[in-house]
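Forum > Structural Biology > Help requests

Title: Can anyone predict the 3D structure of Amidophosphoribosyltransferase?

Hi all, first post here. I have the sequence for Amidophosphoribosyltransferase but no way to get a structure on my laptop. I'd be grateful if someone could post the structure tokens.
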Amino acid sequence: MSSVRNEHVSPAPTTPAAAVSEPEPEPELESGPREECGVFGVWAPGEDVSKMTYYGLYALQHRGQEAAGIAVSDGRRTVVFKDLGLVSQVFDEQTLSSLQGHLAVGHCRYSTTGATTWENAQPTFRTTAAGSGIALGHNGNLVNTAELRDDVGRLEGRRRSGLRATTDSDLVTELLAAGADDLGVYESAMRLLPRLRGAFSLTFADESTLYAARDPQGVRPLVLGRLERGWVVASETAALDIVGASFVREVEPGELIAIDADGIRSRRFAVPEPKGCVFEYVYLARPDTHISGRSVYDTRVEIGRRLAEEHPVDADLVIPVPESGTPAAIGYAQGSGLPYGQGLVKNAYVGRTFIQPSQTIRQLGIRLKLNPLRNVIRGKRLVVVDDSIVRGNTQRALVRMLREAGALEVHVRIASPPVRWPCFYGIDFASRAELIANGADTEGVRRSIGSDSLGYVSVDQMVAASEQPRSRLCCACFDGDYPIPLPEEAQLGKNLLEDVPEPQASGSASGDPGPLAVGYGAGEALSRP
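Reply #1:
Sure, ran it for you. Structure tokens for Amidophosphoribosyltransferase below:
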């Protein structure tokens, strides 16, 4: 027996009160890429798995701040609780105490396919013909979503849930449940997973078994951890640390893992072709996470050192754009011999909010998030280190703010190469036409943001800092080399499964938008600084 519920929803859910009136969020204050999602799963009889999952998701909050959910099974039924908002907003002590069981699947979401609605929050849920429930969390983005939609449409004798979800993850859950009718969940997954193309790190579960799977390229991270009385799977090692799990290994590309009372078993569903996302090292992952045995923090510091070698400047002080630019700024200071300092204060409590700012406050823009330390900045020639430039709006406002605070010179250094191509594997960049580096060279970008100089780390030096072979990394957003073939443009886009027209891209500087004009999140891009 299985059920899905939320605050105002019981077994057969309708739109909850929380989703009836959804105010438009305020424009985002940063131009950085948006993280994709975080997944967490635990099989641990005798442990408080709902609270363990809560804290695991808390550690992964940076990967998705639109919605959160937890599914828990006690061996007889699965209960799903999810809502829009941060992990700490969605769950309270009473809710977690009501989610009793021995295994759980958790998810925090940033949308890459499908709008920000309650229905699209995860874990997704389906019931098999035998009455067993399947709850699934997905990090990444598929590129054959249109094909999967057609597959679901051809299912005989099954009716899509009334949840009105419009995500690739929901399609996967539907197909997984349909196959389980005859094969069981494990064999259904073994048949379905080879048909998925794109990036997917999955955690899913029925009433008795926790599963984890990773695409053959291993684009998004997924790790396995050991508890004294169970197992954990998570997007990052930092989530293992917070629940006291010891790191065992990464879930291998092309691997399906199943964990139940009989132990852990593993099968390959595809030949591994590793192409991990290099941007996980640059920006997405927490600095206290390890990927492929390499510390993310150490990688970012090393990128900063190499950036100083490639783009030195005569200046007085190196400051980061907190928090993501901090390790690279430390490395830049070490590599250049310049002093390091904090010239910007970040409001640690600025997160996703649904409260509309007044026009007066909106005009303050970046000051809601960052404010200059004038006594540190005044009269100084600054090197300002940031993780990336996507549209350039934040850097433009930041340079202006630093000059107003008394900086004599502002030299911007970026700990990644120019972002010239959209990502179709789970990061929300804009369409190609909206990426500032696509239509301008370095000097053009420098003039646009108003800095005295601008320097990006090269692809080769960024890769070298990761200590991974170039052949095992995806650098598509920097070099346009997509390791997983893309379908035609009509079969791509965030709103593919919705009755919403995709935004029309204006094209590149050459006037030809090319085959990659569509980008995830592009519909909102121009309304977000």
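The longest helix spans residues 168-183. The chain has two domains: 35-274, 298-346+361-467+497-525.
Shout if anything looks off.
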